[in-house]
Amino acid sequence: MSDFDKAPVLTERRERELLFFCSNNNLSVTNLELLNTAFTHSSFANEYKQGSINDNERLEFLGDSVLSVVVSEYLYENYEGDEGDFSKIRSFAVSEDSLAEVALHLNLDKYLLIGKGEELTGGRHKKAILADCMEAVFAAVFLDQGFNVVKPFILKHLIPRIENSHRDYKSLLQEFVQKRWKSVPVYQLVKTEGPEHNQIFWYTVTVHSQNFGPESGHSKKEAEQNAARLACTSLGIKE
């Protein structure tokens, strides 16, 4: 590990936490200091009392590039389309919302090192911080284990999002409903949960007097897409 990635002191407790993270996610990271740096937000580094340490911004920069290569290669090998199509799908799959969802699924928020001020303002669940940390973790795995290990780790969590971005269930449902019943699906917000910086929206969709849902999402658009997907599946609608 280079001086550019100097991590906070790795206590026995912190080492156990990081090993638990790796075990839960079927990872084998040997350089735990590097992984610890990936979890270190700039607010923590700025408040650190035991000497100068680095945050995860350099790793985030590298992880963004690794992520882009992995997703781009997957799209090239598995989908038809042109540069514009691929860019649109990739943009959705690697978006802040998408990466924050993956981060929460992997419980990255529990391992984040953030400053007291950031903690008090809900920083542990801010999408930008979670997404940046996710990219930093990808970079740590890449540096420690190589491309052939980080690639399946990334794809395991992003392929479902790539597939969802490739299928526009709202458009698919609307075309079907207009053709069959000369009407349009009606989406309704049922409830909103969570703090403002990490809200979850629940939507239903009504199709010809049939209600489907509610389905959830971290954005209204995502929740509507999930409700539309449920309706499409229930009605046997296929592309």
pLDDT < 50 runs, ≥5 residues: none
Largest sheet: 3 strands, antiparallel
Number of strands: 3
Spell out the CATH superfamily of the largest domain: Ribonuclease III domain
Q: Note the total helix count.
A: 11
Instruction: Give Rg in angstroms.
Output: 20 Å
Identify the CATH class of the largest domain: Mainly Alpha
Strand order of the largest sheet: 1-2-3
The CATH architecture category of the largest domain equals Orthogonal Bundle
Give the N-to-C terminal Cα separation. Answer: 49 Å
**What is the total number of structural domains?**
2
Instruction: Estimate the global geometry from the Cα principal axes.
Output: globular
Structural class: mainly alpha
**What's the CATH topology label of the largest domain?**
Ribonuclease iii, N-terminal Endonuclease Domain, Chain A
pLDDT average, as an integer?
91
- Percent strand equals 5-15%
Summarize the amount of helix as a percent range.
55-70%
Order of helices and strands: HHHHHHHHHHEEEH
